[in-house]
Amino acid sequence: MTAVFLGIPTAPPGVGHLRGDRSFPDAARDSLRDGQLRANLGHATSTIRAKRAAVVGEVPDWAGLREAGRAIKAATMARLDEHLIALEAQVTARGGTVHWARDAAEANAIVTRLVQATGADEVVKVKSMATQEIGLNEALEAAGIAAHETDLAELIVQLGEDRPSHILVPAIHKNRAEIREIFLRTMPGVDPALTDDPRRLAMAARAHLRERFLRARVAISGANFAVAETGTLAVVESEGNGRMCLTLPRTLITVMGIEKVVPTWRDLEVFLQLLPRSSTGERMNPYTSLWAGVTPGDGPQEFHLVLLDNGRTATLADDVGREVLHCIRCSACLNVCPVYERTGGHAYGSVYPGPIGAVLSPQLTGVEDNASLPFASSLCGACYDVCPVAIDIPSILVHLRAEHVEAQERRTAEAVVFRGLARVMSSPRLWRLAQRTAGLGRFLARGKPTLPTALPPPASAWTRTRDLPTPPRETFTQAWAREHGS
Amino acid sequence: MRVALFATCLVDTMVPQVARATAVLLERLGHEVVVPPGQSCCGQMHVNTGYRREAVPIVANHVRAFAGAEAIVAPSGSCVASIHHQQAAVARRAGEHALADDAAALAERTWELSQFLVDVLGVTDVGAYYPHRVTYHPTCHSLRMLRVGDRPLQLLRAVRGLDLVELPAADQCCGFGGTFAVKNAETSTAMLTDKMANVLSTHAEVCTAGDASCLMHIGGGLSRLRSGTRTVHLAEILASTEEAVTPDQSTKPSLSRPTTPTVPA
Fold it and tell me: What single string gives the DSSP state of each residue in A73-116?
């Protein structure tokens, strides 16, 4: 057999939730017209933005902490293979079993097989982006295993047969009244007098979940961090449902993207400060669970760690784009993004929405499978400013736009225009000529201060909602040359 | 000081009065202004739309046009940010290392107008007079890439007769984003609507900024609504004096008047 290198595999199509069925502008069109969604998101993101700004502002060395986070991640990615092997050795030595999954399909097959081996037909789940990414719930369901989400927002999404729209707050697109309606409709035995008081809603969810925690024999989690030197896994959460899942069932299966590893225990010091302030706007999150392997007579007696690639190695191979692997899933970038605030998460078509999603999803799937996402940004830079590990999202967006343009084998109309324009703009003589031609546009205005609103595409995309000024008769440089005789 | 003015492609072609005002202002402050005739564009639109290879000859033209200039000033935060953060990088990626070095050296001598006035010339009171109610939109690239901070506000506060009103949610993007405004026109419009709502809530006559591109976007929206609030570039306000508003500055809502620029009095 001859060895032909076909490139590092990306996340395969047909499994998981990294690809939308529509382009971003198409999907955004619908959500922009959803007034309730716009109101819910505007309220939620502005509240969390203010909370984050307050608790970040009170840390005197935030810039230093942020730089430490960035540096640790960059150094870890440079030797990712070594850290993962060290992690495997430590987890194994402490009684756990490590499984390597090349992609979503392999990870789903491994987890399904592990659950089946216990004889259980249901599992409880800790909120996890990795298992959302690979579509684990659907894979388990196909094997006759019911997966119960236990995070309140994930539960709302699951009961509502909806999709998550935010990394941290999956039901951010729903308000209290809508949540009450979902609970009344779907929760068995719910009090028909349930109100939309947040406390009453949480109590209803608590009663619903408690029963499942107590009978579950298998739990599935993700991980925020994994410490290579000790084999310790970490889950950071607010509600305590994670703690229940991580301690009560006999078997625990953790699915973790390979980029979540950190080399040393001390590294947690940095990230456990950066994460809660950036994500929920809290100084400290209520529950941080740490475990290594199994402890006889205490907690799960069987522990499996599934290390997931699913396009991460391919991402690591890109010297500009690999920075996205530093992401700690805080979602601060979503909360400040003016695009996300208006379109919501579903428009991105992936479980990773917002600015980080627009650079992460296309790299996991290959840019051509998510080609509209890198363009779903005005490059305002608010995401870069708030990122706790200083991922330069705008630069990666621009890089991926170029990767998309350069991947086109057929000549697009846009490319013809931009190539022609490049030739014109690099020649002063042609540029003056082009400016004179543009100036002729004033005749379209027939003496009015604005051009007609009904211009042909692509100008129509501008003029449908915005006026275009009538071009002047003479450019500044022409006038200056005339006056100064050059 | 001898200052080379980079008008930028958009200002030069669509709103020449902004470049004119920049020249008038710098001359009034006692500096010699030159306008290198070979200039066209910084290449930002190509880079940000994914045509970074095609941007390289545009960068080369820019570097050629301004070779030897002591100080380069542009009335655009966005173009200056591209000169600082993108030009050398795209040249280097294309293997044009000599061009990258030249572009980096040129960037060192290139300033956005408010930075040049406050940091290089050390002036905040430029002797302007502008008796209007004005609100200031800090454009994203000025704010986050160039970190111009409150320099434009310092300049505006020193303008006689000017009633400066704070813009709510000022740091929110107006939705322009270059080709974003066309490729994602609906999202861009939703962002613009919220920006306009904030501008209109100030009851300002004029919305100003350091970027003609963002102003064309906001102004285009305000004009479509027949709102009466107009957009005027920071340079035009600073160039205005008691003797004359800036040459060719329109008082019509949001739009430039299509007339031939004239020599300042």
Answer: HHHHHHTHHHHHHHHHHHHHHTT-EEEEESSHHHHHHHHHHHHH
At residue A479, φ and ψ (nearest 5 deg) are -60, -45
For residue B40, give every residue at least 6 positions away whose Cβ sits within 8 Å of its Cβ, in sequence order, or none.
A424, A425, A426, A428, A431, B9, B58, B61, B62, B65
Bridge-based pairing state of the strands B71-74 and B230-233: unpaired
What is the DSSP secondary structure assignment for residue B118, as one 8-state letter? Answer: I
Calpha distance A404→A407 (Å, rounded): 5
* Length reported for chain A: 486
State the pTM of this model: 0.95
Length of chain B: 265
Half-sphere exposure at residue A95, Cβ-oriented, CA atoms within 13 angstroms: 13
- For an interface test with B, give the residue of A392, A408, A476 to mutate (most B CBs within 10 A): A476
Q: What is the ipTM of this complex?
A: 0.94
- Give B24-44 pLDDT, tens digit per residue: 999 999 999 999 999 999 999
What CA–CA distance (Å, rounded) separates B159 from A394?
35
**Pairing verdict, β A97-101 and A122-125:** unpaired
Distance CA A215, CA A462 (A): 58
Q: Is the omega angle on the peptide bond into residue B37 within 30 degrees of 0, that is, cis?
A: no
**Interchain contact, B35 vs A32, CB within 8 Å:** no
CB atoms within 10 A of CB B252: 11
Q: Give one DSSP letter per residue of A310-356, joined into a string.
A: TTHHHHHT-TTGGGGGG-----HHHHH-HHHHHH-SGGG-SSS-HHH
For residue A444, give the 3-state DSSP assignment: helix
Asked whether residue A234 carries a pLDDT value surpassing 70, the answer given is yes
**Contact flag B187-A342 (C-beta cutoff 8 Å):** yes
Tell me the C-alpha distance between B184 and B179, whole Å.
Answer: 8
Tens of pLDDT, residues A59-102: 999 999 999 999 999 999 999 999 999 999 999 999 999 999 99
In the chain, the amino acid numbered B14 is: M
Nearest CA-CA partner of B50 in A80, A362, A51: A362
- For the four alpha carbons of B71, B214, A63 and A333, in that order, the dihedral sign comes to negative
B105 CA: distance to closest CA in chain A (Å): 20
Q: 3-class DSSP state for residue B65?
A: helix
| B51 to A474: CB separation less than 8 angstroms, yes or no | no
Q: How far is B21 from chain A (nearest CA, A)?
A: 10
Contact A479 B261 (CB under 8 A): yes
Tell me whether residues A28 and B187 touch, CB distance under 8 A.
yes
Q: Give the torsion sign (CA, A215, A218, A223, A228).
A: positive
Q: What chain A residue is nearest to B257 in terms of C-alpha separation?
A: A449
HEC string of B26-52 equals HHHCCCEEECCCCCCCCCHHHHHHCCH
According to DSSP, the residues that pair with A304 across neighbouring strands are A97, A253
Residue of A475, A279, A245 whose CA lies nearest to B7? A475
Q: pLDDT band for A303, please (50, 70, 90 cuts).
A: very high
Q: Are A272 and A236 in contact (CB under 8 A)?
A: yes
Residue A469 DSSP class: B
Say how far apart CA A152 and CA A244 lie, in whole Å: 13
Q: In chain A, what's the furthest Cα-to-Cα distance?
A: 92
C-alpha dihedral sign at B193, B196, B202, B208: positive
Tell me the helices (H) and strands (E) count for chain B, helix number first.
14, 8
DSSP string across B141-204 = IIIIIS--TTHHHHHHHTSBT-EEEPPTTTTS--S-TTTHHHHTHHHHHHHHHHHHHHHHHTT-
